[in-house]
Design goal:
Distance between the termini: 58 Å
Number of domains: 1
CATH topology: Nuclear Transport Factor 2, Chain: A
Radius of gyration: 17 Å
Number of strands: 5
CATH class: Alpha Beta
Low-confidence stretches: none
Strand content: 25-35%
Mean pLDDT: 91
Shape: elongated
Number of helices: 4
Strand order of the largest sheet: 1-5-4-3-2
């Protein structure tokens, strides 16, 4: 295994991976919303957000919603891969549904879901992000889906 030179400045790839790791460990995991201002570009966009909401304030909304519904949530990052200004993250999200989530009351059940994210960074901050998550699997684990073959109404 290569030696790490503690005195050598981190490469751009290493710095970008550190930003993404801090984003999940500190902002999502610890609820340190002020850290989003440091790590998220003012024009940052979730590429899957049809309403085109942007910047650290949007991230803070999502974190607040998730942490109120899943206060014990944990993000276990198993892989961070960087190529230039892009970072890919593979993680496992584990949480217990203890508060209202998208209008659904707490089930007190636990979910464990794999996530894959792709980030683009600019000026040392996250400027674009997109996710592939198993939301249907999560809803099933939480008991929020109707039984097979039955409609919700």
């Amino acid at each position: 295994m290569p030696q790490i030179d503690e005195d050598r400045p981190a490469s751009l790839s290493e710095r970008n991976k550190q930003v993404v790791r801090r984003f999940y460990e500190e902002v999502f995991g610890q609820g340190r919303l002020h850290t989003a201002d440091e790590l998220v570009h003012p024009d940052a966009v979730d590429l899957h957000d049809a309403q085109d909401r942007r910047g650290p304030e949007r991230v803070k909304e999502v974190v607040t919603m998730l942490r109120s519904a899943f206060p014990d949530q944990r993000w276990d990052i198993t892989e961070l891969v960087c190529d230039g200004d892009r970072v890919a993250m593979y993680s496992m999200w584990t949480a217990t549904h203890e508060g209202s989530f998208m209008g659904m009351p707490a089930t007190h059940r636990q979910a464990c879901v794999h996530h894959m994210y792709l980030f683009r960074l600019a000026e040392g901050k996250i400027i674009e992000y997109a996710a592939v998550r198993d939301d249907l699997g999560m809803m099933g684990q939480l008991g929020l889906l109707p039984p097979r073959g039955k409609s919700p109404n």
